[in-house]
């Protein structure tokens, strides 16, 4: 396996050296594979000769635009957004008008994007840590579940992690924990209990992966059952955590307490229901290498285009370092010039590296402060370090101007370890956010426009109770960190009052 992964490094080095040529070839391949489909015929894929033609002829789309096509595909229709019949659809909470959205997962997309992205992540891990034992010991991944689509049972829906686990290549199956039956259970409480029972005596675990929230739930239960002080007393060979899906900064101190090992390896991947987009190139990096040859053609929307009726996107070659963009993807899953909703900023070119800054729907700009999730995650991490506290979850919303009152931000926070002084924590958090975001700092100047943020401490478990009440209790569902409205925050407060 080390030899095989070493060969894959050559593929990565190729797109690092020739990024635009590789992306041009990806676009040509996508167009050629789709020109005979309904979508391809509608938008003249047969006449597209360049990226410029593609941008002119194909509209920018969001989930609601593609939903009618996807629904037909879920009912078994062929050659709609991609060639042939698509039988698998990943279920995601997303930020749409629907409770769930369903993303096509073609065989091409599964193997040449999602699974290839995982291989690329393992390649980079072994490149940086040649003594890794991913393919010698066991690796634990908490995945979602799968179900038959009620309206057309030949179609299968579920979390992308569950689809990947179910169709995992044979070479990876012997190294998976806990087991596939447990991993695909739909009841999360039972899944956690069963996972604890199967792994509490398994000292061969080497790597864990997945969303931080669910791993923390697992860790807590594991320590309750075993009576141990930290996780390395249960799994002494655990050495690597691959995380993604949410910003890791607020969780870092919690993980250090669970995993008190100086050389423990944390590596990040940018994977979502819509695709596997980036991975950490070097250990300790805070940015991610954009994967350019995995069946995804990238374009980018500057911030001023996010709410435009006819947004103008720019190609990879025209991006600027340090500027916020919304990602626009065209993929071998049949997503075309699709607004994924995630925002990134480039930290370098050659290679193209990014940082995930948030989501277009998860920011606060009620007063011109342009606060992104990356800003609040950093501010939380800094404040926790200063006060020796640990935040487990948080969400933020604006406090709107009233006739006689000023605006501001309201924070709802759950602590794993509370600070000694909440008022001091609040002041430090506000000051750190000003240091990180100059627009917020300007609005906070002498409290002329915005008052100091207000912070309320929630009882432990409130966020999970709220997610469960919304039917969004699973691996793909995440606590919304920021919103430019008060809907989430007010709803959480209502749930909390009911439980008091």
Notes on the protein architecture:
With 500 residues, the chain is an alpha/beta fold. The protein has 2 domains: 1-294, no CATH class; 363-499, ANL, C-terminal domain (GMP Synthetase, Chain A, domain 3). It has 16 helices and 21 strands. The protein has helices at 2-17, 19-34, 38-42, 51-57, 63-74, 107-128, 160-166, 180-183, 188-199, 212-226, 252-258, 373-387, 422-436, 438-444, 462-469, 487-499; strands spanning 88-92, 101-104, 138-141, 146-148, 156-158, 176-177, 205-209, 240-243, 265-272, 275-279, 288-290, 296-302, 314-315, 324-331, 338-348, 353-359, 363-364, 371-372, 390-399, 408-417, 454-457. The longest helix has 22 residues, at 107-128.
